[in-house]
Amino acid sequence: MRVTTHPITNVPGKPRFKYVGNMHGDETVSRQVLVYLIEYLLSHYGAEPRVTELVDSTDISIMPSMNPDGFEKATEGDCVGGVGRGNAQHIDLNRSFPDQFDPSSVLASDAPEVTAIIKWILRKKFVLSGNLHGGSVVASYPFDDSSSHMWSGVYSKSPDDALFQYLARTYAENHPIMGEGKPHCTDDPNVEFKDGITNGAKWYDVQGGMQDFNYLKGNCFEVTFELSCCKYPLASELHTEWNNNREALLAYMEKVHIGVKGFVMASSGMGLPDANISVAGIDHNITTWIFGDYYRLLLPGTYNLTASSPGYLPKTVNNVAVVEGKATSLNFTLKDLSEEMPAPEPPASPVPTTAFAPTDQSLDNQGASPPAPSVQPQDFRHHSYSEMELFLQQVNSVHSSITHLYSVGQSVQGRELYVMEISTNAGIDETGKPEIMFVGNLHGSDAVGREMLLNLVEYLCSNYGSEALVTRLLNSTRVHILPSMNPDGYEMVLEDVRYSSNQNTDLNSNFPERSYEKNFAQPETAAVMDWIKAHSFVLSASVIGGMIGVKYPNSAGSTDEALFKTVTEACLVEYSSLQMSEACDFKHYVSAGPTAGIDMQTWVYQNTDSLGFSIGLSCDLYPEAEDMLTYWKQNHRVLLQFIQQVHFSVRGRVTDVQSGQAISNATIVVDGSKHQVHTSNSGQYWRPLAPGKYELQASAPGYTSVSVSVTVSDTRVEQVDIGLTQEHLSQPADQLEEEEFERLLEDRSSAHGLEQLIQSLLPAGTLRYRTYREHSEFLQALTLNFPHITRLYSLGHSWEFRTIWALEISGSPESSQPTEPKMRYVTGVHGNAAAGPELLLEFASVLCINYGGNPTVTKLIDRSRIVIVPCVNPDGREVAQEEKCFSTAGLTNAHGVDLDTDFLYGSLSVQPETRAMMDLIEGGGFSLSVNLEGGSLLVTYPYDRATQPAQSEETLKYLASVYANNHPEMHYGVPGCKYGPALVQGGTVRGAEFSSHSGSMKDFSMDVALCPEITVYTSCCLYPPAQQLFLLWEEHRMALFAMLLELHKGLSGVVRDRKGQPVSDAVVNVNGSVFVRTDTQGYFHTLLPPGTHQLQVYAQGFQQQLRQVNVSPHQMASPLLIEFTENSTHFSQEVVLAAAISIPTVLLSSLLIWHFRSAKFNRCRDGVRWLRRRRDDLQMEAIVSEKSPLRQVFLEESEMCREERGWAGLLGQQRTAQ
Ligand SMILES: [Zn+2]
User: Fold this and answer.
1) What digits encode the pLDDT tens for the residues 237-254?
2) Phi and psi at residue 998, in whole multiples of 5°?
3) What is the whole-number distance in angstroms between the Cα of residue 254 and the centre of ligand 1?
4) Which of 53, 296, 407, 926 could connect to 416 by a Cys-Cys bridge, CB 3.0–4.6 Å?
């Protein structure tokens, strides 16, 4: 497992580290400990600065088992081992490497494991490595054998003996047992190792060992670690072993960064692979890797280092100081032996010297190391064509991992029109990465753009990986830079032969006004036109002199005018002294030759997907070198800002609704603009738009066009994915499936349908009381075993920092399918009601185990989103006492708050557990919720607070009765408990009548999310004995499933306008009271009791619609299609007849899938949305007045969101600062 940033590519400046475990198949501890290490690195990356820095700066490879065949033969619990030590041919792999004293004679076919490892070692040139074994507890370092091969006692010293001792000690002293040096293993109880380390040969002679091969042939320092006396301990020991080794594993890895590191380059700047690095006094050389990069591990001290490579003059640097900690940087530039004349000094090292700084400042919250200052370009001078060519080639070879140099064509005189693309994976069309381009030197005399763009190339390359902004830009954007579009003209200027040639056309006026006029374009113009058309540059700019400021094409009367202005303003902020164009004197610039065309930005805007700009960086056209330095310093941030602007686009994918496949070359147009953009091969498009409301239309040949409204704000990026439906295509398959599900639901809802389902289920049999930790492990195990239908995530933490888990079970847990109804099962609000958490874990297990085998369960999971929160109050649960039926220990959270009184909406000081649940409820879009409690045997429905009955009480009572009726006793209405009511009709009661209190979770769910929630009191005893758990499960499982069936009943539908566009936020009013709103797809779902209901559907700007619907107790909700007509002058309240159309058909024919995605802002947006919705609702009910505290809450919430906007938000702020 390779763990590093950019794990697919090789990146210069990252040393390579490896761990190899389980080389002896019977020595198994390392095998699992290395898996834990991988998990640890991945789960702490981005959260813990130490791990983040290690993973960012190191190319880590972890091989948990080098001998998987041997392992299969070994037996758990066998401490002595032997069986499974060798591979399948009984070859001891750690005796089969070529040996310095006796070359190995093992055949490759006998030990393919060794052959594979040798290849890997030679190819990757690892810098440091650990080889993990078992059978003792000690770190053993080279050499492993001596020429005498005395079986023990001969100290066989390597040239790097002191360093090896240090490396071995690093591991040993971080391991609690190894560091003691007294492993007390039974086979050799008296052996002791000073500091827990030993020379390999001194301990015992190993011929053909792996670590010596690594050191002598592989450029790699390897130490062998023996992790435990017992070779194959019981699995229960593994956790302890991980704890023993964790710190040692990490500390040892970090040592890959000690010593001296750098590059060996030719004078051209090209890295030299396989160059030798020797250290005076140490008879062991290492060599450079493919980029010419080297890492020489050394202890603190002063050294003389020599770099040499065949064909070059060796170079020695004396007195190189190595200090504790990070490696000293030292680059060598070697002179070619064939160079007779002394070459001019190459530009100062373009190699990043700060590659190990964290790339994101926010990760560096300990402030240990300040953010690295950006490396400024050094090379301020005029580059002739050949100098420019050399410069670009140098950069391309040194920074090959992020650059791609290509030519778009040739000039009249045959010079290449070079483009440098800079991006991670440059040259590859990557999903989600917009492209942007810069062109310079359109006029031969305009040298500013040319030089500034060369500086930009250098700046981007040398700051990637160390400067946060540059790193982010190159990670997310493909930047194409054409420094000189007119190299011929430039050379003429350089030779001071201005305008003497015939070919002196002003290329910036050479773009044809209409496409058929292309033949008058100069070859340079034609090449650039083809280039621009072949790419989908979202933005493009010519960088020029003779002006300070930003110009854009005439777009008067178009919606694009606002966008051009927005981008321009954002860039103008970055000019350090905003002189604006009036400061420039244009007289010295004389346009030459024919000007029968239009300028580039206009051509780009009118003829391509791109939006064109001109960015002026200086009044001078051909300044002195020192002035260029000034212009760069003053204005280079304009160029960076321009790159960032590309991300303020509406973006998304256009896909085929049926197949989900990308549609390439689909056209996206915006109302009010003629400018078109097209989708890439992966179906992606970018459309920059200024803040405002727009209509976006997507079309493609053979598909029905779709229009969507989109609101662009200046604080976030809108993702609008659009699904297109092929014209004339029916969906028989989906309809069949739909009918099948309807039948299934009907069957299961009939007299004995549910009982049959319960009988057919495979039992999970996991019931027992679990501690918090067991509980968490169980959930994790469940998701590991059922990764395709489960997703486990944290809602937040309790006071004592226990995680409040949510387990989602659905057919597609990773994607959002808003049309699948969503169900919530919650328990453990009161920690002393301990049965609920176990019942829900069992329920989750049964769902998972039966998925794929049981058709009903499979269909239910595929078509629902089930979210289980198995313990809201883990702190309380932890202190509850078993078999205490009436104890209040654990009722509250760790701060003594009864969480079921804490759901006070609008309150900013709720408990963390409450906040976690509130966030879930607010953002969730749930249609139904069941909360398990204890202490009685009944079901309560909203409200818990003493108030008027809920307007939808009929529905709520019905839902509660569904649960009670599917419980063998509850519906008799005789709880039979010591406390509480003796008689409850039907087993259901309004919450306020059972135990009146305010701030309850179900009231919050009703008020804020319009989601009905019922509370089930599972049994009289709060914490029944463990042996009663199974009985409880038997009593409740049918009711739990019944609620899941209920989820698919009720009423659902889609509201759209006459054009087929979904109408979001339409209000569906049922029987004059219950109401629900449509989501962004125009979809709504609400649960209703069986019977006839009157529907009233209204939305702003549309005529109201009236409907009458029948809800059956056995049947699935028959989806409605409600089509609005615009509110016109001839008002009439017509009732539109609609056929009962199934959900998928409605959605497919609505032609559209779209959703907003904006990960960072989701929470804020949802928060604001519910507040807004809530506010509207309250106003509608005429309950709230202006004096209500709600307004204040709304403002505070918005304030908070502004602070959380992050990177994109910052840009927005700069914009608004304008
Ligand atoms: Zn071993």
Assistant:
1) 999 999 999 999 999 999
2) -105, 165
3) 24
4) 407
